[in-house]
Amino acid sequence: MNVSEAIRTRRSIGKVKPDAVPQELLERIIEAGTWAPNHKMTEPWRFFVMQGEGRDILGNALGDIQAAGAGDTSEEGIAAARESGRTKAYRAPVVIGVAVEPSTDPKVIEVEEYGAVFAAIQNMLLEIHGLGLGAVWRTGEPCFHALMNEAFGLSPNGKMLGFLYIGYPDMEPKQGKRQPAADKTVWLNSSKDV
Q1: Is residue 45 over pLDDT 80?
Q2: pLDDT attached to residue 194
Q3: pTM above 0.85, yes or no
Q4: 3-class secondary structure for the chain?
Q5: Which domain of life does the UniProt lineage start with (predicted)?
Q6: Mean of pLDDT values over 143-148
C-alpha cells in the first residue's frame, strides 16, 4: 500500500485477537518510529514493548493510579483497582509504551521533542497498518501521572505519551471521515491575504 492510501485508510482498532505478533514485525514497528523527524537529531523517544506478563508493569501502574485517585485505601479497594488496571493492560497481546525523554541541552526546545515523539507514534501506526495489524493509541491522565513515570523509570522531565495496543484485527474498521481540508486552510499568497 502506498503512503497516501495508508494515511487515509488507517483506523484505530480497539479489538484485536489474542494471537502473538512475531518479533520481526515488532522490530519493524519500532524502527519505523525511529525514522521520525527530530530537530537537532536528539532522538528523544523511548519504547517499552510489553508482552505476556510484561504487561503487568502497565497494569500495576494503571491500578496504582486508579487506586490513588479513587480514595478507597481499603485492601479490597486497592485490589479491585489493581485488577481493573491489569485487565486494561491485557486488551492486546502487545502493548508498546512510547515516551519522551527531552534533551537537557538548552538549545533544544522542549515542545519540539514532544513533536518528534508524536511523529514517531504516527510512523509506528502507519507501519502497523501496512503490516496488516491493528492498533489503538491510548492516552489520558494516567499516561502523564508521576506513578507512570516511576513504573517505567522515566526521568522527572520524561513523559509517557501513549500506549499502542497492537494485534491482529478482530473488528471491522469504522469508516473514516474528516472535514474538507479547505475548511481548515488559509492560503497566504501575499501579505494582503492576512
Answers
A1: yes
A2: 65
A3: yes
A4: CCHHHHHHHCCCCCCECCCCCCHHHHHHHHHHHHCCCCHHHCCCEEEEEEEHHHHHHHHHHHHHHHHHHHCCCCHHHHHHHHHHHHHHHCCCCEEEEEEECCCCCCCCCHHHHHHHHHHHHHHHHHHHHHCCCEEEEECCHHHHCHHHHHHCCCCCCCEEEEEEEEECECCCCCCCCCCCHHHHCCCCCCHHHC
A5: Bacteria
A6: 95
